[in-house]
Amino acid sequence: MIWKVNNLLYAAGTELVNTIRIGITLTEPIDEQALRLALSKSAQRYPYFAVRLSRRGEEYIMESNDLPFVVSPGGNTVTLGSAESNFHIFAFAYEGCRLYLDTVHFFTDGNGMFPFLKTLLYYYLQTVHPDVRFETAGIALAGSEIPAAEAEGDPYPAKPYPERPLGTLSRPERVFQLSDQPQGYENVDGWTSFRFRVPQKDMMAFVSSVDGSPATFIASLIYRAIADAHPETDLPLVCGMQHQFRQALGAPLSHMCHVNIVPIIYPDRLRGRDVERLNTIARGCLILRADEANDLLTVNAHVRNEKRIRSMKLSEKRRYMHQVILDGIGVNTFEVSYTGRVPWCGLDRYILDVAPYFDLTLSGGLSVEIFSVGEAFSVNIMQRSPVTEYVDRFSALLREYGIGYAAELPEHFSLCSFQAMPQDA
Q: d(Cα 271, Cα 291) in Å, to the nearest integer?
C-alpha cells in the first residue's frame, strides 16, 4: 500500500531531525521475544506505521515495509529511515524495565501513536502474563476494522476554510532566551532529563481551585523558576504550549502529526505574581489562542503550503518546508506539552511512568512533557544542559504549594537520528 506523507516531512534533514522517544517504565524487566511478537501483531493492525519513506518523482511517499521492526537492547538508538532501522521510521529499544519507542515527530505525534502504543502493550503483557485476563474494550486488535479516517494519508481539505481568528498568535519582537542552554546538535551530549512523579490528587486539587489545567500549572511554575533565576531581565518570557488541532481539522482519528505551538506570553509586569494568578492568566490565554477559530489558521497554512510545493522539485520542497517550520514555531523561552488523561484500559497497573523525550534543537532550551499514568502525573523536564537551577526552583515551588512528588536522578538522554532520502535518490 501507499500513503501520502505529511508535508512536514520535507523539512527533515541533518539540521532539523525532530525525532521523538517515548520511554515507558514497566513493573518488570522487558522480555525481548515477547516484545518482538507483540510488534508483529501490532503492525498488522497499524499498517500505516509499518512503512518506509520512498521517492516517487519529486515527491515523498510512504510504502508498506514488510521487514521486522528493529529492537535494540541497552536502550540504544538507531538511524530511522536507514538500514539500521530496516528502513522503518519506527524503532524500539529496551533496557531493564524500560521500553522505548522512537519515531519522527514530523510523521506522527503523541495522540497519533498512543492507540498503537496501547495495542503493543496489550499484546506484550498478554504474552508475558498468559494467565491474566486483560480488558480489550478500547484496544484495537489485529484483524479488527481500520477506519478510513484513521489510515487516511491526507486529511486536509482541498481549499482553505473561512477564517475568523479570535486573537493573535504573534510573539513579542524580543523574547528572553536561556543563555545557559547551548544551541545545536553538537551539544547533544549535554541533553539532560529530570523526571518527577506528582500525585494527581495533589496537583488537581490546586489546579481546579484556580480554574486551571495541569499544563498551565506546570507552565506557571517553570515561568516562576526561570524569572526568579534571572532578575536582571525585563524581557517577556514566552511558553510555547504544544497543542493539537485535530478537532478543527475534522480528523480526530488521524495518525499524522497535527501539533501547533501556541504562545503564552509572560510580560515583565507579571514578575513576582503568585502561581494562582499566573495559572489563571495562562489558562485564559490558552483558551483564547488555542480556540478552534485560531486552529483553522494552522489548517489553512498547511493547505496553502501543500499547494505551493506541488510543482516544486524535491530539493526546493525541502528548503521551503524547512523555513516554514522555523517561521511557524517562533521563538520561545521554554515549552510545555500535556498529552491529557488517556484511557489505558487497565494496562497502566503494569506501568510506572511514561516519559516522552523530544528534540530540543528548536525549543528555547527547556521543554516539559506531562503524561498521566495511574494515580500520578509523569513530568519530564528536559534541558540542553545539566544545570539544575531551574529544576531546583521548580521543586521548591512544588513544596511551597504543598504538592508532593518523587524525583528520579537526572539522566542524559539520546534520540534517534533520521535519514531522509538524499536529493538524488
A: 27
